[in-house]
Amino acid sequence: MIMSLGPYASFIVTSYAAAALVVVILIGWIVLDYRSQTQRLRELDRSGVTRRSGRSAVDTPRTIT
Amino acid sequence: MTLIDLANPTRFLALTARVLPWLAAATVILLAVGLYQSALAPDDYQQGATVKIMFIHVPNAWLSMFVWGVMSIASLGTLVWRHPLADVAAKAAAPIGAAFTFLALFTGSLWGRPMWGTYWEWDARLTSMLILFLMYLGLMALWRAVDDPSRAARAAAVLTLVGAINLPIIKFSVDWWNTLHQPASVMRMGGSSLDKSFLIPLLVMAVAFTLLFVTLHIAAMRNEILRRRVRSLQMMQASRVAFSSEVGTGSREENASKGAA
User: Fold this and answer.
1) Which end of chain B is more exposed for a tag (fewer CB within 10 A), N or C?
2) Residue B150 and residue B22: Cα distance in Å, rounded?
């Protein structure tokens, strides 16, 4: 079945495309930021800097990213 | 695990690792169901197929206010209870709230052109939403402008609580003023005026977008905690370097003075 969007199809498609784009940008920003922070923590760990608790700088749990 | 336990950032990070995959999966499933139902929803007798824009526009408009509400509660947590994660929660929510507000304005504008004959009208609802968007941007700028996170948090918390005055203005603008924007049709006295064929996809999309916000917010909070950990470790590293160079200079001066004697 082909969905008919009528004479204002471009407005509807643009709305959904914009929402998809913004959500993808948000997800991408959060994933890249996470990678950047964990990378910086690893570099600090390699340079011998430890937290006051004595734990490694890279004491972050495993996640889906 | 109690709320007090979550005050510990390490415990919070452990919790995010456990819940994020489940939240992400639930969001994807609910978004898929919502989009499917939105596609199958019939055309409105007045709006035609442009009613489909509402399934995106309304959840984003709700969330734009909901996120500011979350930030306001977090700001109270910063100012009153000094909860260690409160300002992390507020700071992490701001860009997500700004994105939802932008989408509410953008999709509303795209709906307005064919339905009202204009992309924009300076009426109370649209203007108060634009002010909300500008306040989100202002808060994000404030957090970036102040280096010390605790000082930035207090200033941002005050600004957030002052900005919360805008929430009832947005909600009741359509009742208080004569606006082009239609009055509330879902959350109103006497129940929703929408037919089930529109109401169900709309509510599913609203829950899906809320879950999306919760997922992104928790992930962004995790990033903010890690950013602060990086900052404190870099400061420790810098102070160690400064201390060792001071010790080095001190011992050289001591040796020099012994030699002179």
Assistant:
1) C
2) 32
